[in-house]
Design goal:
- There is one protein chain.
- The protein has one domain (about 1-225): Class I glutamine amidotransferase (GATase) domain (Rossmann fold), CATH 3.40.50.
- Helices cover about 30% and strands about 15% of the residues.
- The chain has seven helices and nine strands, in the order βαβααββαββααβββα.
- The chain has a seven-stranded mixed beta sheet with strand order 3-2-1-4-5-9-8.
- Helix 1 packs across helix 2 (about 65-70) and helix 1 (about 25-35) runs parallel beside helix 7 (about 215-225).
- The longest helix is centred in the N-terminal third of the chain and has 13 residues, at about 25-35.
- It starts with a strand and ends with a helix.
Length: about 220
């Protein structure tokens, strides 16, 4: 069982002057779920090397057993610091793909032709594709085999308008996932803000927010079992 984890390389939060990147919990919880299940993991990002960590994800309120484990895990830290370039990986080498969120993916991975083609390759190969929090936004330009948006008519979730308003970034992000998915004809679903909520539509698995990351990882592992 070999899983590709794709992280953002984008570290600028619009024109706010603040930093962004990937969200630690959304990487750490799935990373250990996969590793503890015996999966072989490869970490990739558009630029390769160390992906930027959203500094807000290091605040005490957002720490979990998985994030604390990561801080004590030199192997995991080395793997994260040396991600391979996204254009150097191929769908054929993996059984599934997982994208952690954080706001970064809305800027780079959502517009990356390399990421779009990779997801489309996984879809055509009938392999599980999974995304959590802001990472579902990378699906906005992904097409199905019929040329229509991949998420058109399909059950999906992602960071809600209410959650984006809650962190004060509704006018900063390049697009709102909830609005964009509805515009694209997806069957967008959501749970309560800040509560774990995930959706499966065939091999497409999405989670709403950071605390949904473990549920998405477990759903992916069940698909691979």
């Amino acid at each position: 069982m070999k899983i590709l984890m794709v992280l953002t390389s984008h570290d600028t939060l619009g024109d706010t002057g603040h930093k962004t990147g990937f969200w630690l919990e959304e990487f750490a919880s799935p990373y250990y779920a996969f590793r503890d299940a015996g999966a072989e993991l490869v970490l990739a990002s558009p630029k390769g090397g160390q992906p930027p960590l959203d500094p807000n994800s290091e605040q005490p309120d957002f720490q979990t057993a998985a994030t604390e484990r990561f801080r004590q895990d030199e192997q995991a830290q080395r793997e994260l610091a040396s991600t391979v370039r996204l254009d150097e990986v191929a769908e054929a080498d993996f059984d599934a793909v997982f994208y952690p969120g954080g706001h970064g993916p809305l800027w780079d991975l959502a517009e990356s032709s390399t990421s779009i083609a990779l997801i489309e390759a996984f879809d055509r190969a009938d392999k599980p594709i999974s995304f959590v929090c802001h990472a579902p936004g990378v699906l906005r330009h992904v097409k199905g085999a019929d040329g229509a948006p991949l998420i058109e008519g399909r059950r999906v979730t992602g960071f809600t308008n209410g959650e984006e308003a809650g962190v004060g970034l509704s006018d900063v992000v390049p697009f709102l996932i909830e609005d964009e998915f509805i515009r694209l004809g997806a069957r967008y679903e959501k749970g309560e803000d800040w509560q774990s909520f995930s959706v499966e539509d065939g091999r497409l698995i999405t989670g709403q927010n950071p605390v949904s990351s473990e549920a998405v990882a477990e759903a992916l592992l069940k698909r691979l079992a």
